[in-house]
Write a structure and sequence with these properties.
The complex is a heterodimer of chains A (445) and B (348). Helix content of chain A is 74%, strand content 0%. Chain A has 445 residues and is an all-alpha fold. Chain B is built from 13 helices and no strands. Classes of the chains: A mainly alpha (445), B mainly alpha (348). At the A-B interface, α9, α10 and α11 of A face α6, α7 and α8 of B.
């Protein structure tokens, strides 16, 4: 029975008992980890190790160890960057936008999605550094006073990226932390010893008075309103890294909303990938219902359709424009050297989400979980197709080339997944994965 | 007279009569069809945007648009009217001001007969789907979500065709992949503005239930949505503009540059009308609650969109003063159709 249904069915005393049970169930997840947790963490750390060794190899031997070449100067690293920024999107979408829209199902996913946002941004942030090659010069990206008056090029979308992504990280982290405060206070009450002290410090002395709640609600609403335009701005700026350049396949006006929709699409898929196992492992079936997943599936289906629309428009207008470069670029995508990557994307992002029109598919968690994986793969390929294929077939035949990612690039990509999942696993054992106070509030109203 | 009692044949007859009158006007006045195109671009938003707002709320099962539902859905037959107007437009203009008609074009898409057929087809589709959706939604059946979804598909298709065929192809070979999105977002925005006008009418109508808490809550939600769309419209505008401006490719920038030469900085007036003023006004709760303010903002939004459409087409289509007469004629039909339902809701 869902928390809503429960509230309708029980007396006030039973509601209180139910809320206590809810608290116990959710905080039970923050207990001593079992061997399965350690095994999963070990796997994630191993992947991080693979990534670290690969990166170390690149630092020692230089960017020549990658498959990057002329004309494909942006490859898997930038693909990974865009992919992870995309994953970071649904956190704020689910939290902020759905909060403003008063969509109740958000409270089942928002905590994990917000955490996912932060870890994904942390992962994405690594890639510009990795891509630099000489990572020790990363601070050249930042505007800082220097004797030769060297200044970063503010007209470059790459610099806009630095500001957009760092602002997004800051606001997302604050939004996440503010939402956590009342739950941290509950953890302080439940836990003992050193844990109690840590949760006590982290909860900033929260006592749950009326005045505190009043301020909290105002701040939370304000942060939600602030974070909403950021969802649009960050991925739009990322899209402009490409759209501002005069490269066929990149320079197109639809890129900003198309990237935003794609980001939400992939982010929702990742939330499903993460939350289905969490629901089972931590026995949260009572609080995260099939109905909640169905709503998420509908969101996934909707954003999938938006993305499909963008694919179709790109192709249609390339044909309509009569521009030979534009037409050849898209012919190359469909039938050229990378056709396998293009059709993988179509299969994963256009065809497979159509299954969600079938209601039983939306309500089958196993199906949803399985579907979320090809969607994530498809979204990775979408970025790969945009970046690599456009560069591989530039204006003139002398600038054509074929890029194959090297083992170092794959190693770093695997490392990024390990890095992300490592943080996420640690999160599940240290903080409540559901927003307890919001769920309690729903039970009361 | 309630709409349900309104004879369908009579309504179609009025549609046909007005379409014929508009055709006659254009022919007598020696019009190019440009004025009619301008009017059609305005009214096609009002014929579909309000329904798309309701379809979206039905799909997500939210109830905040319910008090507006009947009026917003009352426009559903007007897509048929738009279809008839399109035929009149085609007959008047023969698409003469579309440069692609003046040569044998290698792209089969740009072909007069196909242009006519596909436009009629999409308008008939949206009319049929819209009628079914309106019926299901008003009866609050289980099917409303499904038909709402179909309506949204046909809405996106129709608005995309309108954007690409009616407007973008005037500038051929200039293209913007965002143009379709830009049009259906503006249309939704215009649909919300219609809700703001209804708000004003409800408040003036003593028979209506304006004092109810539910209506006031709905009004606030609608106006918040309108505020959100002012930002979203600006986002779309900027997304399109920045890529063209930054890319600085001659054949792309010409779209803006030619119009800058024709209209000067007035070209940027729609930004003030569609973003700056609505954003600042609707930021405040008391303004969202004030029917006079929201109706004024709605009129400004309609004017802003119309002005933008004028800038888009006038260099090619030569919009004349005839447009005022046509706006009045077509607008009269819109008001007549909507009123037949509006009264019904007020009595409900």
């Amino acid at each position: 029975m869902s928390s809503d249904a429960h509230a309708n069915a029980r007396t006030p005393e039973e509601v209180v008992q139910y809320k206590d049970k809810m608290e116990r169930d959710i905080y039970a997840a923050i207990s001593k980890p079992n061997w399965k947790f350690w095994a999963a963490l070990a796997l994630a750390v191993t992947c991080v190790g693979i990534g670290a060794v690969s990166w170390a190899t690149q630092i020692i031997r230089g960017l020549g160890v990658t498959g990057l070449m002329n004309p494909v100067g942006w490859g898997v690293y930038i693909t990974d960057f865009v992919f992870w920024v995309g994953i970071a999107h649904s956190g704020t979408l689910i939290s902020a936008i759905l909060y403003l829209f008063r969509a109740k199902f958000r409270s089942r996913f928002n905590r994990a999605a917000e955490a996912m946002t932060i870890f994904a941004v942390l992962t994405a942030g690594l890639f510009p550094l990795i891509h630099l090659g000489r990572v020790w010069l990363f601070y050249w990206l930042l505007p800082y006073p220097n004797q030769r008056y060297l200044w970063v090029n503010f007209r470059s979308p790459l610099v806009w990226d630095v500001f957009a992504v760092s602002t997004y990280l800051t606001v997302s982290a604050v939004f996440w932390y503010v939402g956590l405060i009342p739950d941290l206070a509950i953890a302080r009450r439940i836990k003992s010893g050193i844990q109690k002290k840590i949760y006590g410090i982290a909860s900033l002395g929260w006592t749950g008075t009326f005045k505190e709640w009043q301020h909290y609600n105002q701040l939370y609403k304000f942060l939600a309103a602030l974070a909403t335009p950021l969802v649009l701005s960050v991925h739009s700026v990322v899209s402009w890294d490409f759209a501002m350049a005069v490269v066929y396949g990149w320079h197109t006006t639809i890129f900003a909303p198309y990237f935003v929709a794609g980001a939400i699409f992939s982010g929702c898929a990742m939330v499903i990938t993460l939350m289905v196992p969490i629901r089972n492992i931590f026995s949260l079936e009572e609080y995260i219902t099939i109905d909640d997943f169905e709503k998420l599936a509908k969101l996934l289906m909707f954003t999938g359709l938006v993305v499909s629309y963008a694919y179709m428009i790109e192709l249609a207008l390339a044909y309509y424009s009569g521009n030979v470069y534009e037409q050849q670029q898209f012919e190359y995508r469909l039938f050229g050297d990378y056709a396998w990557a293009y059709w993988t994307m179509i299969l994963c992002n256009v065809i497979s989400p159509l299954t969600l029109f079938y209601r039983p598919a939306r309500r089958s968690l196993m199906f949803l979980w399985i579907l979320s994986i090809p969607i994530n793969i498809g979204m990775w390929f979408e970025r790969f197709n945009i970046i690599v294929i456009s560069l591989a077939k530039d204006f003139d035949p002398y600038a054509f080339g074929y890029y194959t990612p090297s083992i170092v690039e794959w190693g770093i990509t695997i490392g990024s997944f390990g890095w992300f999942f490592m943080y996420f696993l640690i999160f599940t054992k240290t903080l409540p994965v559901l927003s307890v106070t919001e769920l309690k509030e729903e039970v009361e109203h | 007279m309630g709409f349900t009692n309104l004879n369908f044949g009579m309504m179609v007859g009025v549609f046909a009569l007005v379409a014929a009158a508009v055709y006659g006007l254009e022919m007598v006045a020696g019009g190019t069809g440009g004025s009619l195109l301008f009017c059609m671009l305005f009214f096609v938003m009002l014929a579909q945007g309000p329904m798309a707002v309701i379809a979206a709320t039905d799909i997500v099962k939210s109830d905040w648009a319910v008090p507006y539902k009947r009026e917003m859905l009352s426009v559903h037959h007007l897509s048929l009217f738009m279809c008839l107007l399109f035929v009149a437009f085609f007959a008047v203009s023969d698409l003469d001001f579309y440069n692609w008609t003046r040569r044998d074009h290698p792209i089969p898409w740009l072909n007069k007969t196909f242009f006519l057929v596909r436009n009629i087809a999409v308008f008939l589709i949206i009319w049929l789907v819209g009628s079914k959706f309106a019926k299901e939604s008003l009866n609050n059946t289980d099917q409303k979500t499904k038909w709402g979804l179909f309506f949204v598909f046909s809405y996106v298709l129709c608005q995309t065709i309108v954007a690409f065929d009616w407007v973008m192809s005037l500038d051929y070979p200039w293209i913007s992949t965002l143009f379709g999105v830009y049009f259906f977002v503006a249309s939704l925005y215009a649909g919300l503005a219609l809700a703001a006008v209804f708000t004003f009418i409800y408040h003036r109508n003593e028979k209506s239930k304006v004092s109810t808490k539910t209506f006031k809550k709905s009004q606030m939600d609608m106006m918040t949505m309108m505020f959100g769309f002012s930002v979203f419209w600006a986002y779309q505008f900027f997304s399109q503009f920045i890529v063209i401006w930054y890319g600085n490719i001659a054949e792309e920038v010409a779209y803006i540059d030619n119009r800058l030469q024709d209209y000067g900085y007035a070209l940027f007036l729609p930004i003030i009308m569609l973003f700056v003023v609505p954003f600042i006004t609707l930021l405040f709760r008391k303004n969202k609650a004030n029917p006079n303010v929201v109706a004024s903002v709605a009129l400004l939004i309609w004017s802003g969109i119309s002005l933008e459409r004028f800038f888009m087409i006038n260099s090619f289509a030569n919009v004349s003063l005839l447009a005022i007469v046509e706006l009045a004629l077509i607008g009269g039909v819109f008001v007549w159709v909507i009123r037949n339902r509006g009264d019904k809701l007020a009595d409900a």
